[in-house]
């Protein structure tokens, strides 16, 4: 971490260990390193500016300093289906956008927040093993879930919450909303998943393309797509394009 702590006090929800810094390369990378050094469960690292932020497929993610929410959350209490943590962070982010800015996003499989057809946020999870502080004291699984949300600024064609919204207020609401989620989030995830019922084009690894209709999300995180020949596909990975 190469940024100094930001002196921006907040009443964070209890049980979260929140640090805010002015600048760093990547909050995900920093928090994975902190996990290896023994950082506790539910550690949170938020940066006012990232210089090496990355999204899915190693896409660069950047924003002007202080404009957007750039944060990662560390989880040592990892469920058997680790993708559930990504669902929970995405759902909590949707609730926070509603609470703080009156904006109602939908989720796009596997990990984006949309307002209409415009991207508001992206979520990226990374897992590691080992280091002190894990289950049993050593070697426990760790998942870091990062989210970048357009708050005061957005690139062309994307959505934002609003010029008068404080990214740290969004973070406080997100953490509180995370704690308020039910034990079983699959019904809520399906309800919020705007990909369901849509005609989609799925760009698969290796260049293959699948066209069809998204009909369900499995408990294991896979997207169920029915193609034009009525063949069902259950997808672990893929870049989704919502078709009109």
Oligomer: single chain
Enumerate how many helices there are, as a single number: 4
Beta fraction of the residues? 25-35%
Largest sheet, spatial ordering of strands: 1-2-3-7-6-5-4
Q: Based on the structure given, which CATH architecture of the largest domain is correct?
A: 2-Layer Sandwich
Overall helicity: 10-25%
Instruction: State the major sheet.
Output: 7 strands, mixed
The backbone outline, from C-alpha atoms, is globular
Determine and state the CATH class of the largest domain: Alpha Beta
Question: What is the rounded Rg?
Answer: 18 Å
Number of domains: 2
- Low-confidence spans: pLDDT under 50, at least 5 residues? 1-7, 134-138
**End-to-end span in angstroms?**
43 Å
Describe this entry's structure for a reader.
There is one protein chain. The chain has 244 residues and is an alpha+beta fold. The chain folds into two domains: 17-191, 2-Layer Sandwich (BirA Bifunctional Protein, domain 2), CATH 3.30.930.10; 195-242, Roll (SH3 type barrels). The chain is 20% helix and 30% strand. The chain has four helices and twelve strands; from the N terminus they run βαββαββββααβββββ. A hairpin with a 4-residue loop joins β10 (223-227) and β11. α2 (83-101) crosses α3 and α2 crosses α4. The radius of gyration is 18 Å and the shape is globular.
